[in-house]
Structure formats: C-alpha cells, structure tokens
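Reopening: structure tokens for the adenosine-5'-diphosphate complex, inputs below.
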Amino acid sequence: MSVNLQTPIDYLKGVGPNRADLLRKELNIHTYQDLLNLFPNRYIDRTRFYKINELQNNSAEVQIIGKITGFKEVAQKRGKRLVAMFQDDTGSMELVWFRGQKWIRERLKLNTPYVIFGKTNWFGGKFNMPHPDIETIDEHKRGLSSGIQPLYPSTEKLSNKGINNRVLSKIVQQLFLESKGRFVETLSPNILSELKLTSKSDALLNIHFPKSQELLAKAQYRLKFEELFYIQLQLILKNLIHKSKIKGFEFEQVGRYFNTFFNNYLPFELTGAQKRVLKEIRADLGSNAQMNRLLQGDVGSGKTIVAFMSMLMALDNGFQACLMAPTEILSIQHFNGLLEWCNHLNINIKLLTGSTKTSERKIIHKALENGELQILVGTHALLEDKVKFKNLGLAIIDEQHRFGVKQRSKLWKKNTLPPNIMVMTATPIPRTLAMSVYGDLDISVIDELPPGRKSIKTVHRYDSNRLNVFRFIRDEIAKGRQIYIVYPLIQESEALDYKDLMDGYASIERDFPKPEYQISIVHGKMKPADKDYEMQRFIKGETQIMVATTVIEVGVNVPNASVMIIESAERFGLSQLHQLRGRVGRGAEQSYCILMTSHKLSNDSKTRLETMVRTNDGFEVADVDLKLRGPGDIMGTQQSGVLNLRIADIVKDKAILQQARFYAKKVLYADPSLGNAENETILNTYKAMSKYKNIWNYIS
Ligand code: ADP
Ligand code: MG
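Re-run output (same inputs, fresh job):
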C-alpha cells in the first residue's frame, strides 16, 4: 500500500505546525503531493571539495570541509552581522549571516568538522561565504543525494526561519522514506514503452536525488512530458466535448449577402490564404458545433475582409454579428471600412463606443433587440449588460490578446445559445504558445500577404547618423511620400518622454521648415478632437510628416506613408516595433523602417534590433520575443495558469510540447472517453488532477 499523497504536509515527520504553515504560505505546499512536485530549480555538482587556498575570486559555488574556530558580532548600519571564523589545513575564511543569527549560534558547534557550501566573495583581504549551507560530515554522508545536489525554490521568509535548501531536501527525503519511494504510475504502459520513458517512481527519485547526470536527464524528460501531456489532454478534450456537446447556431446556407458581395463588390482578388481560412470558417459555421476560432495574421495580411465575409454568413442565416476592437480609434476605423461594403448590400450597421451619445445608444439598444440592427461594431462598450441582441450568431474580437478569457465568456452570455466566436490577432503568437494557451481553440493562419506588396526594408542607424537620415527623408518627401516619426512614451517616465517628443518636434520643425514642409503631431495628452484633426491632415496628405507617440500603433492606415522612423528604438519591445513597422508598406511603393538608437545598447536591445533588420516575418519576430521575454510576460497574467509550469518550459521544451500534443491527440481520437483498459491510468490521473488541482481553472 503506497502512502496517500493527499495527506496534509503537517503529518510528515520533521514538519511541525510552524514549518507546515510556512510551507503552505511561502511555497503553496499543502500535501505530500505538493512537496513531491516541488521540483528543484537547478542542480549543482558537489562531487568536488575545495581547499581554502584554492579559492578564486570568481564567486563560484564551492564546498569546503573545515571547522568553525570562533564567532563574533559586527555592528553595521542597521543591526549587526554574525561572523564565524572558518578554517581548514590550508587557510581561513569567514562565514557571514545577516539574518537568523540566534538560530545559527545555538546550532553550530566550535571545532567540529562541517561541510559548507555556497558562493564565496572576496572582501577586505579575505574570502567570505554569506549564508552557507552547512552540514556535519555525517549528515552529508547520510544524505540521499549523490554528488549532484538539487537547489529548491526558496523565499526570504523561508531562509530567515531556517528552512534552507538542506532542510527542504531533508523533508523531501523523509517523504521518500515514508513512502518507500514507491509512487503510483501516471502514464499509460503504451506511452511509457513507446517513448521509452522512465517510471514515475524512478523519475521522482532522480529529480530529487539524482544518481547521475544521465538519470537526471531521463527523469526531467519524463516529468516534462507528463506535465505537458496532461495540459494538452485537457485542452483537446475540452475542444472535443465542445464540438460534440455545445450546440451553436448552424449557418446552413451561403446566401444572398455573401454571394452578392462575392460576385459584385469584392474589392480585390482574395489571397490563397484568405480563401483557405474562409473555407475553414465556413466549415465550422456550417456545422452545429459552436465555433471557437483564433484567426492569426500579420499586420496587413487582410483579416478584415475575412471577418466581414464571415459576418455575411451569419446575416445570410438571419443572425446578427458584432465586431469588438480594443480601442476607439480602431473600432472607428473598422466601422468606416465596413460601412462602405454594408452600404452596397443595404446592411444596417452601427458603431458603439464609450463616447456614443445616450440618445444614439437608446436607438442602438432598441434596434439590436428587435433585430433591425444587423452588425454592431465597437469597443468594450459592447459588453455592457444593457447591450442585448435579438440573435447574435457571430462575435468577432480583434486583437484578442488585449481581452481576457472573461470577456470572451461574457459575450457567450448574451444569448441562449453561445454565439460563434472568432478572435483575431495581429501579433503572431508563436506556435508553442498558441498550443499551450489556446490549445482549446481551432486556429486559422493567414500566412500570405496580398500581392504586390514590396517587403519593407529595415535598417538600424545611430543618432550620430541623423543628418543622413534627414537627407533621406527629404528625398522621399520630394518623391511625394509621407513619413512617420515615432517617439516612445512609457508611463513611468512620462514627463521626460514628453520632453523628448517636444524637443524632437522642435528640431524637426527646424530641419523641415514651413511652408515647404507641413508637420502633424499627435500624442496622448492631446484632446481627442485635436488628435483627430491632426491625423486627418496627415491622412489627407496635407502634412508630410507625422510626429507621434505610439498612439498610432493601432491607429491609422495611410498607404502613401512609406517611411517609419522609430526614435529610441532600443526602448521598444519587439512586438511593438513590429506593429509600428506594419504602419508602412501598405501602398505600392518601396517602404522603409529606420530604427534610431544611441550607441549604448543592452544585449537584449541588440537582439531586438538585429531581429527587426533580419526579418519581416511576424512569426519569426514573435519567436524571438518569446525567447527574450518568456511566456508569462507576453500573455500577461490572464493565462498564467497554463504557463505556470512546474518543470517544462514552453520555449526550451518545444519538441517535448509537440510530442505531448501529438500523443494527447492520438489517445483521445482513438478513445475520447478514455474508457479503454489501456488508458485506465490516464483516466485516473486526469480525474485526480481535476479534483485536487485547480490549475484547470483558467479554462473558461
Ligand atoms: P489586417 O490583417 O492588418 O487587419 P487589413 O484587413 O486591414 O489587414 O488589410 C490591410 C490592407 O490590405 C487593406 O488596405 C486591405 O484592403 C488590403 N487587402 C486585404 N486583402 C487584400 C487582397 N487579397 N488583395 C489586395 N489587397 C488586400
Ligand atoms: Mg486589422
């Protein structure tokens, strides 16, 4: 009989109520299981012992055998530090504690051999080691650990209270003693043998007490696979259940609206990718399963028309549709774009944003409820409770990553049946991330730009080259082109950034004097009406240069603008740089993006700039961004549940993720209810996880 892993951690020998409390609060460890799943952050090789006279001034982690010959307390600015004189047969050094001094003094004996481990510093002509790990020779020998030592996650509170790495390791060791190291297998025999994975018990033993580098690697591989496998299983299962259980509106026919538009008003030939994606959407909408689709496509790939034609499918079947965008500017732009097409087809379309007047609102609410209004475009205002549809058949959300799952589900509740949902994102999400975060959605990708677009040339220039850049601008303006010059505006240092912007504007006015040159300026501190006026002047071609902050990021569409200059480009993130670059290259002319920076560049900045210069491919940019920033930062906290992985890393473990998804699909497609005998282990594990863990909560 193996030990029950749901036993509260208090029951483990060596963990009293105080420690249990700390473990709960600091590391979220409530049960034996949680402790078992506290995987080390990293490992250090402790096969080697150093002598004090071998120490180098390089802050390496070393272990040394020696004795404490005395203690002293040294007063410092705040409080005091405890210093122990430590020596071996080659020399002496100091051990230093800034916290937990009482506990240390009571516990450590003079002139007794200890194994100490930690980072050394060179200070005041001596080596010292702050807060070393200390064990007696006996303790060291008795440890389950071989030469490879795990380092567990910790917090300041824990180490203050004396729960250091060694103590944690001992607690884990106790768990292995009580359970005799036998743990229930959690993967099926099929998968274990097909992938030659190590058993659960072996994996857990070697993750905590590695016997060799090779066994450690095997353990890590198996546990990473398992973690990713069950997330994928969950996502795919959800998708399958969705398709079989959740009925959506079925758009049976392709009808008048779609055909009239397609035959008479299509403004251009659709690209192959647009056609393919429309087919995918059509297949989804034509089934009675509710659609939940992510539409990815780089800036300018032509998502709008795909969205519009999907809405026509809804209208053709007597349903309403809505399109929600993250900003007012963007929803106005969408509205104006769609309005023209709608007018051809006599479709009733309206715009609803935060600034819509009450009287207009009332009209909209009424027309929505009685079904006269067919398409509603707008911002978050669409989510207000007062907004009720007669029969919303399709909801499209632009720029998905700015909205959360919560908002998605809010749209659901606007009907008896959930509407079909399509989320569009212009920031390409790396495949691995999409798989982990949106694995329950179907994904369509527009991976082809409309024909005739010249790819944008991107260069990096230092501020010292400004005169050349200005000369280039003059030449482009002489050819009739328009120019964007963008300044960073980052909230924390707003005043300073604002000054940069104004200084920049002044210097551009000097170099590009009126009346020959006209300049627009747009920034966040302006009144909306003034902003709009300036933007309109640029859109109409009355001004040749637009000086702006990132306000324009998702704003305007000016095909005649062919140069994007980004000032202090080192301060922008990759996806922002890519989005800004997408503002040019919309017309037939060759377009340019010039990244201006100072000479002082961090390594990350260099990587970002090099990436921008190297490629125009949004997916490639996104991949680099993911590597630089990590998944949590990119997706925000909304989806942190999925990204809060214990051992796997979706950037580094891409291959394992793909394998896990492949196997999760293989298992579920063959046995959707997991009822076959061979999948019993998987079913049991899955059930247990859903019961005890709330990591599934992120799924709406
Ligand atoms: P995004 O995917 O960034 O939303 P848009 O839908 O705004 O892209 O399209 C960008 C520009 O490309 C628009 O001016 C649009 O009219 C044009 N466009 C879209 N599809 C095509 C196509 N198949 N052929 C030519 N131009 C197209
Ligand atoms: Mg768009």
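Confidence is low (pLDDT under 50) at residues 637-641, 693-700. The longest helix spans residues 213-245. Marking as resolved unless the reporter disagrees.
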